[in-house]
Design brief:
Largest sheet: 7 strands, mixed
Number of helices: 7
CATH topology of the largest domain: Quinone Oxidoreductase, Chain A, domain 1
Radius of gyration: 19 Å
Distance between the termini: 11 Å
Helix content: 10-25%
């Protein structure tokens, strides 16, 4: 089958591959015909030791996507051939990812895609949406509390703004000026230009929490958090705690129940995503664009 990925362990060059078809699904697994697969900055970590997801090259990259069920393994209930499902997979049951025509997934990690939802849009949701939801869950903020989000213009930051604002949290976000209007529409009370090196001096401090979605901003954000507050980093750079602040790194995990909540909210128009679809064969281009942060806030999605 056609795939986009890496040819050998440790390889960093991403290219077009001709891979064997996946084996029949095992216990608790599904074989999915991929309709759309998300691309994210995490994909460059899959074959370099940064994120161990069980990749066994030669293999396709990608840990999120949407597709139709082709075959069902033993022990799976409540799912039928032809069902359209969305999922985030880590580890990858078959050692190969979603940037391919077919992929093996764990049935317990999947959620149904609402019939009215474009599968390309649904494929953009899993990793960013789950990360945002799990980070906010960890912070446990309540109505009226103040949250600082760095890189609010990225896919994860934008979803976190929407989820937090819907819960009554007052959000300040850093982003590029071109994203200001969009993020205000999403519910941000204040949007700060991250290009301004003195941006941290231009915001009111004493945030109840900070959500770090931009590498290198955790140490800048920490002094802006009140004593006894919280900092949650999505970029593996949580600083040492001080002043009673809880400082942690968060790593996304598959969660079918949360994914169902997210897809339902997206289908009802309660969440919005900016998506750019590309053909599967443009996978290497998409990989390079994401690595170079040349997406203008759009989530890239590959379509076989």
């Amino acid at each position: 089958m056609k795939a986009i990925g890496v040819s050998a362990p440790g390889a960093t060059e991403v290219g077009v591959l001709d891979l064997p078809d996946p084996p029949p699904p095992g216990e608790g697994q599904l074989l999915i015909e991929v309709e759309a697969a998300g691309v994210g900055p995490w994909d460059r970590l899959l074959n370099t030791g940064g994120w161990h997801v069980g990749l066994r090259p030669p293999a396709a990259l990608g840990v999120e996507g949407v597709g139709r069920v082709r075959a069902i393994g033993p022990g799976v209930q409540g799912i039928s051939v032809g069902d359209r499902l969305v999922t985030h997979e880590a580890p990858l049951p078959g050692g190969s990812g979603f940037w391919a025509e077919e992929v093996l997934v764990t049935a317990a990690h999947t959620a149904s895609v609402p019939t009215e939802m474009d599968p390309v849009v649904a494929a953009a949701l899993p990793v960013n949406g789950l990360t945002a939801m799990q980070a906010l869950e960890a912070l446990g903020l309540t109505t009226g509390q103040r949250l600082l989000i760095t890189n609010g213009g990225g896919s994860t930051g934008a979803l976190a703004i929407q989820l937090a604002a819907a819960a009554g949290v007052e959000v300040t976000a850093t982003a590029s000026p071109s994203a200001t209007e969009r993020l205000r529409e999403f519910g941000a009370s204040e949007v700060i230009d991250y290009h301004d090196r003195a941006w941290s001096d231009r915001v009111q401090a004493d945030f109840d929490a900070a959500l770090i979605a931009a590498p290198g901003t955790a140490a800048i954000a920490l002094p802006l958090v009140r004593d006894g507050g919280q900092l949650c980093s999505l970029t593996s750079d949580a600083p040492n705690p001080e002043r009673g602040i809880t400082s942690t790194n968060l790593y996304v995990r598959p969660d079918a129940a949360q994914l169902t909540q997210l897809t339902t909210a997206l289908a009802r128009g309660l969440l919005r995503l900016t998506v750019e679809p590309l053909p599967l064969t443009d996978g290497p281009i998409a990989f390079d664009r994401v690595a170079a942060d040349r997406t203008a806030g759009r989530k890239l999605v590959l379509v076989p």
